[in-house]
Amino acid sequence: MNITVSGIDIQVNKKKIKNMHLYVKPPEGFVVVSAPLLVSRKSIENFVRLNIGWIKKQQQKFENQPRMTERRYISGETYYIWGKQYFLVFRNSSRNHFKIEGNSIFLGMKEGSTTEQRKKYVRERFREILNGQLDRLVPKWEEITGLNCDSYKTKYMLTRWGTCNSKARRIWINLQMVEKPLECLEYVILHELIHLKVPKHGKDFVAMLDKYMSNWKDIKNLLNNSPLDSYQQTNFCV
Ligand SMILES: [Zn+2]
User: Fold this and answer.
1) 81 CA to centre of ligand 1 in angstroms
2) CATH number, domain 78-224, options 3.40.605.10, 3.30.2010.10, 1.20.120.1200, 3.20.20.150
3) Three state DSSP letters for the chain
4) pTM
């Protein structure tokens, strides 16, 4: 079902859920409402009207945020590692290789390699670079805070910079963190380590951030205002 409220088109998905949820999806700021099966159209319209300020703010944010163009892994494209810009130089090569020199990333892959194959290969190289820093920085922040995780892993995530499974004492770091300035990675590590002790972002959580990283708000802003991948689904909330 589709409805229009104050000139905004909204897609309504009825589901077996208890409460209504509102989503503003990039890149265009398309609005979706998930609603319980029995909720009336009027209630949904009221719910949207109540949140119209928030919707417009989100849409504005998506409009203003820089976005990287979709990568094809060809020469001349720009990539970021720890906030520094590099230019890709692609060459056909019988052996896959990935080498950073000066401001360039030299990528060599078999002739006829597909975008998907290049993406997969580059992603694993980025994962190695990220892991190199995690191996250094996770122990550093564990020592500072006295909070220890059992393991940390990396994965490509569309909605979070990091997550914490406090039961398994496992931390997940978004692969895209390799693109951001290193201090942003330190912030996400600290953030997730604190979650081992404090699950929600309440007063206690903020007090611990303040204690260990007095400029965390600036770093968080730096992170959340950095260019997003072209296929990013939602804005991040760490
Ligand atoms: Zn959090």
Assistant:
1) 24
2) 3.30.2010.10
3) CEEEECCEEEEEEEECCCCCEEEEECCCCEEEEEEECCCCHHHHHHHHHHCHHHHHHHHHHHHHCCECCCCCCCCCCEEEECCEEEEEEEEECCCCEEEEECCEEEEEECCCCCHHHHHHHHHHHHHHHHHHHHHHHHHHHHHHHCCCCCEEEEECCCCCCEEEECCCCEEEEEHHHHHCCHHHHHHHHHHHHHHCCCCCCCHHHHHHHHHHCCCHHHHHHHHHCCCECCCCCCCCCC
4) 0.74
